[in-house]
Amino acid sequence: MRLFASAPPRRTTDRPPLVLAAVLLLVVGLLLVLPDRAGAAADTLISQGRPATSSSVEDSTFGPEKAFDGLSTTRWASAEGSDPQWIRVDLGPSATVSRVKLVWEAAYAKAYRVEISADGTTWTRLATETAGNGGTDDWTGLTGTGRHLRVYGTARGTSYGYSLYTVEVYGTTSTTPPPTGAFTVVAAGDIAAQCTASSSSCAHPKTAALAQRIAPSFYLTMGDNQYDDARLSDFRNYYDKTWGAFKARTRPVPGNHESYDPAGAFSGYKSYFGAIAYPQGKPYYSYDQGNWHFVALDSNSFDDAAQIQWLKDDLARNTKGCLAAYFHHPLYSSGGHGNDPVSRPVWQILYGAKADLVLNGHDHHYERFAPQDPDGRATADGIVEIVGGMGGAEPYPIETVQPNSQKRISGTYGVLKLDLTDTTYTWQYVGTDDQVKDSGPTYTCH
């Protein structure tokens, strides 16, 4: 049991009864003469019910939210057998933290850090454990200010993973109202190869199961939903068996493979998705969620004057504070297809409308870029581009790393988990093993 941030962890059950009684008398005496320490128990609990994420989960029944639900019988558990692992909580716009209480399950951390961050990227250490023995660790007398708090495990105390019944964060929160309109979206491109769950190497059943475990508000796809020629029969035999489970909550766009259908370009795509993919009668459309405006585009026809004019008109009507667009062909990519200039005119329109985020597929890897303009110049008011083409098709290697590329992952299937509020956005690239392979910064909408 940890009593103070500077004291080594000890369990009271390890002490003889007479020594324990003497220690209790000493503690009572100290509490009488040190009212500030006695008041630590009165600190306000500020973490219960707050949004939580983790590096991994053992399975969907042990999600990170279980450590913040106020119940002593539920818990978060990481994947087994690997270090490091972490769990973090979003405390709101800003919080001052004075105490963190951890209640470990049998799978405890031998070494870990408690850290705080304003942006979820740069972390400041509040406490360090190097000889943990499980049980309850109660870190008091802390001083730290930030939005995100995490427990970062570096060495397991057992051969299993990390597991916490409870993470309680105490302190005070900013008087500024917390972000509103928060919701989660799962996104992926390049999905259904012609295989089924009967093959252990078939990836799209695994990415579909992962997408369902995340349980987002809705799903969006960035094209090449079905391989190879996207016939209606292929959609029914493959895509529908996996990602089709949440078809009604999916907002797709077509890729180049949807145009290869022998029955006619986009015939199978249109027959399968129907009004879901053509809600406004065209393969491009828009919709709103919270303070976000989403624009779904068909990059196979960026030379179509009607689509370009529709885009300009749609953006002119937009009243939302945050703007995201998604389509198949990325303007920037470090993969085999590389940069696709067909998307530059659309980027110019989006950049002029102060768009925040662009999502693409086409190249079968994950990649994120720093904010940049249509000419590839890094700028704070630029667009963040993410390539998320690892939904199930065969991976492509990274070939030529592009300027402003911040992170690239190839060979690991997974999905994008986008966390959006009325004013901010961030994301994680989550692998089919439930482990977070990359976390993006938290950006404020333009």
UniProtKB/TrEMBL annotation:
Keyword rRNA-binding recorded: no
Record InterPro entries: Calcineurin-like_PHP, FA58C, Galactose-bd-like_sf, Metallo-depent_PP-like, PAPs-like
Transmembrane region(s): none
Coiled-coil blocks: none
GO molecular function, one term: acid phosphatase activity
Keyword Signal: yes
Keywords on record: Signal
The F5/8 type C domain, residue ranges: 33-172
PANTHER family: ACID PHOSPHATASE RELATED, PURPLE ACID PHOSPHATASE
Protein name listed in UniProt: F5/8 type C domain-containing protein
Species the sequence originates in: Streptomyces nymphaeiformis
Organism ancestry: Bacteria, Bacillati, Actinomycetota, Actinomycetes, Kitasatosporales
